[in-house]
Design a protein that fits this description.
- The structure is a single chain.
- The protein is mainly α.
- About 80% of the residues lie in helices and about 0% in strands.
- The protein has one domain: Up-down Bundle (Growth Hormone, Chain: A), CATH 1.20.1250.
- α5 packs across α14 and α9 packs antiparallel against α13.
Length: about 400
């Protein structure tokens, strides 16, 4: 089966991966225009870009259970088609609440193909090849974060509705997936001796909760930049959607280049050191934005954050896949999606009110302090773990 499909399977998977980040990034450059056009405040417009994340979080466990029962192919294909229909409806919607509803349906669709992509890669590839392909997936994902904001910014210069037209690409891609995507959940992947409940899997792998927490933080920080950076840039007289999209593209480009080389990075760094490096880069980036009023410092800081994102996301996905039996991967990966997208949704909910009290720079300062604190906590943990291992040896 794999030999028949291998020529086009990876291309379909990687292009589909770009649609995950497109769900939010394609309309990020027109947030200010939507805010003015719909007559809503900053927190409300932030919900337009994050509501889909909440529904991804809610429906991911259901999708994960479905994948473990029926396989990855059907959820993947139907997710892409529904994505195109729900996202493209924004072309004609002029009501805030109707737009929120369409974003909710979009989220369910993303949950379907996002979880499927991760399980397909984990099931089709092994060892260093798995690291390489997961890195490519992260690179494709973030490359979409370069291309889609630029397209969104260009289309948004004509109308804030036009960027929604790009969601329609999900429909033909779903049809292509019908031909190119194999079913990976077959008898070849069923393991003997791994019977048990999902609760027992978590009991035996408490580290899963740490990884979920890291991904929650990564996505929350990402959407601080997506939601609040465009508003901060207005203070530097940067308000054109196309110019704003350039800043978001810097983040995505740095993350994409890093993910592309993830296989090489993983060959020299352990998962734990990757976490430590990411926390350091995030802390430097957010603290710099909060303290230095210079447009180029913002560019560099956003790039540093992107490098951290580019190594932590593929690392976490493979790390999780290696910890659990194949028969549970759909559900375990789906919970990963829940934590990631709850992080996205909670970002404007948590930091929106904070911006009213501390200002936009206060939001970035708070994020930087959190990352600095976690960096030192994790450093302390690694030092103690190393000391304990030496005593045991």
């Amino acid at each position: 089966m794999l030999k028949i499909y291998s020529k086009y399977t990876l291309s379909t998977i990687l292009f589909s991966a770009t649609l995950t980040v497109m769900a939010g990034s394609i309309i990020a450059p027109v947030l200010n225009l939507m805010r003015d056009g719909l007559g809503i405040d900053a927190t409300s417009v932030g919900l337009i870009i994050t509501t889909h994340a909440l529904f991804i979080a809610f429906f991911s466990p259901l999708i994960g259970s479905l994948i473990d029962k029926v396989g990855t192919r059907k959820p993947f294909i139907f997710g892409l088609i529904i994505y195109g229909l729900a996202g493209g409806s924004g072309l004609y919607i002029t009501s805030y609440w109707l737009l929120i509803f369409s974003r909710a349906i979009l989220g369910i669709a993303v949950a379907a193909f996002f979880t499927s992509i991760s399980v397909i890669i984990l099931n089709l590839y092994e060892g260093s090849k798995r690291d390489e392909v997961m890195g490519w997936r992260g690179s494709a994902n973030t490359l979409g974060g370069v291309i889609w904001p630029l397209i969104g910014g260009f289309l948004g210069s004509f109308s804030w509705h036009l960027p929604f037209s790009m969601y329609l690409v999900g429909i033909p891609l779903g049809i292509i997936a019908l031909i190119t995507i194999p079913e990976t959940q077959n008898k070849d992947f069923k393991e003997v001796g791994h019977e048990g409940s999902i609760i027992s899997v978590f009991k035996n792998n408490l580290l899963l909760f740490v990884i979920y927490g890291i991904l929650f933080l990564a996505m929350m920080l990402l959407y601080i930049i997506v939601v609040f950076l465009p508003q901060l840039l207005e203070g530097f007289d940067v308000s054109n959607p196309l110019y704003i999209s350039l800043f978001l593209s810097v983040l995505a480009l740095s993350a994409g280049l890093t993910s592309f080389n993830y296989g090489k990075i993983k060959s020299v760094l352990s998962y734990r050191l990757i976490v430590l490096v990411s926390l350091a880069l995030w802390a430097i980036g957010f603290l710099s934005i909060s303290q230095i009023a210079n447009i180029w410092i913002i560019v560099v800081s956003v790039a540093l954050f992107g490098v951290g994102q580019g190594i932590i996301v593929p690392a976490a996905m493979v790390w999780i896949g290696e910890l659990v039996p194949v028969s549970f991967r759909g559900r375990i990966i789906s919970y990963m999606g829940s934590f990631m997208f709850i992080g996205q949704f909670s970002s404007p909910v948590i930091f929106g009110p904070l911006s009213s009290y501390l200002g936009l720079k206060g939001v970035f300062l708070t994020a930087g302090v959190i990352c600095t604190f976690l960096f030192f906590c994790f450093s302390f943990y690694l030092r103690n773990e190393h000391t304990l291992n030496k005593k045991i040896c």
